[in-house]
Amino acid sequence: RLSCVRNNVWLACCGVVSAGLAVLSSFGLMLFCGVPFVVTVANAPFLILGVGVDDMFLMIASWEQSSSKHKKSDVRALLAETYSEAALSVTITTLTDVLAFFIGTWTAFPSVRSFCLYTGTAFVFCYVYTMTFFGAVIVLNHKREQGNRHWLTCMPVRVDEADKSCLYSACCVGSCSRQSSQPETHQLESKHPMSRFFEQYYGPFFTNTWTKLLVVLLYAAYLGGSVYGCTQIREGIDLRNLASDDSYVVPYYDDNEKYFSEYGPRVMVVVTESVEYWNESVRLGIAKCMQNLE
């Protein structure tokens, strides 16, 4: 929006900061508790960022709907209604994610266990910061808009001036609209273009009979492709990623790849019966067997 009042850049930045705080809190707590940090844990921040941004959009959308529908001036009532609409979705999403990752801690692989502990705890902190920190940021941003203050400097801006250019209005006044001389926050808010698109075009298009048939056919093709793909799965995991960074397995695989990778796969011979290794003839027989295998 070309408005220096309605612009929510700082609100979006605070949503990302909220996810970052969740990652820092989780990593700090796990390291304080002595949980080993492995290389797979480095992927956790991207998961937390995705969920945190999704929660941010839910909170902002609920706040905007509450503000446009009821026009309440009481910030507590607006925030309460926002939580009543968005908190349920955020809570269910967080519970399912946390449950899935904490179940993963039952695995026997130490690296997978550490990854699930770090990520599951980060989801808990992400929920806490969304319900507390980001809710407070939304209220502060609302008060800034009510005071008709600039999004960057938080300084009061003037109302629309008819003799100024559109660029000046967008940067210093708050709107390119020349139809009203009232502050930005007192103008009636229209529906977002994306909301109008889904309501007027997307919804009617997908309720069409031929569209429903096409969706069913596409889903059947996707399901068939997925089943076929499951039959083509091949093992290709690096075993070093399943061990802790300080495990003896890591340098073993590093040295094996460095010095013996050109000799092909390893072949092991196991003797299941007791052998008289003190008998020289037995030792010579084992050595001859090994030479024949080579």
UniProtKB/TrEMBL annotation:
<keyword id="KW-0325">Glycoprotein</keyword>
<feature type="domain" description="SSD">
    <location>
        <begin position="1"/>
        <end position="140"/>
    </location>
</feature>
<comment type="similarity">
    <text>Belongs to the patched family.</text>
</comment>
<dbReference type="InterPro" id="IPR000731">
    <property type="entry name" value="SSD"/>
</dbReference>
<keyword id="KW-0812">Transmembrane</keyword>
<dbReference type="InterPro" id="IPR003392">
    <property type="entry name" value="PTHD_SSD"/>
</dbReference>
<feature type="transmembrane region" description="Helical">
    <location>
        <begin position="9"/>
        <end position="38"/>
    </location>
</feature>
<protein>
    <submittedName>
        <fullName>PTHD3 protein</fullName>
    </submittedName>
</protein>
<feature type="transmembrane region" description="Helical">
    <location>
        <begin position="86"/>
        <end position="109"/>
    </location>
</feature>
<dbReference type="Pfam" id="PF02460">
    <property type="entry name" value="Patched"/>
</dbReference>
<keyword id="KW-0472">Membrane</keyword>
<dbReference type="GO" id="GO:0016020">
    <property type="term" value="C:membrane"/>
</dbReference>
<feature type="transmembrane region" description="Helical">
    <location>
        <begin position="115"/>
        <end position="140"/>
    </location>
</feature>
<keyword id="KW-1133">Transmembrane helix</keyword>
<dbReference type="InterPro" id="IPR051697">
    <property type="entry name" value="Patched_domain-protein"/>
</dbReference>
